[in-house]
Amino acid sequence: MTPQDLRDWRDAMGLKNQQQAADLLGYRRPYYAEFEAGSRPVPENLALVCAAHWHRLKPWPECRG
Q1: Helix (H, G, I), strand (E, B), or coil: what is residue 55?
Q2: Rounded alpha-carbon distances, angstroms, from residue 18 to 12, 42, 43, 59
Q3: CA atoms within 13 A of residue 38's CA, in its CB half-sphere
Q4: Going by C-beta distance under 8 Å and a sequence separation of 6 or more, which residues neighbour residue 1?
Q5: How many of the other CB atoms lie within 10 Å of CB of 35?
Q6: What gap in Å lies between CA 61 and CA 43, rounded to an integer?
Q7: Mean pLDDT, residues 60-64 taken together
Q8: What whole-number distance in Å separates Cα of residue 64 and Cα of residue 37?
Q9: Does an H or E element contain 61, and which?
Q10: For 13-34, what is each residue's pLDDT tens digit?
């Protein structure tokens, strides 16, 4: 995921600002802003979380054994 992809994701999700995106993804806004600015690479796990939110995936049920 590129910084532009991340910005496009935020816009497509209807998130009005970086703070809303950071809150949804569990990051502090300054740290998230570095991903969008390209000063810090977007981690693969963040891209996966974005995809999960985009597809409205629910948390995986606990395994019972």
Answers
A1: coil
A2: 13, 14, 17, 24
A3: 4
A4: 9, 42, 46, 47, 50
A5: 24
A6: 25
A7: 72
A8: 42
A9: none
A10: 999 999 999 999 999 999 999 9
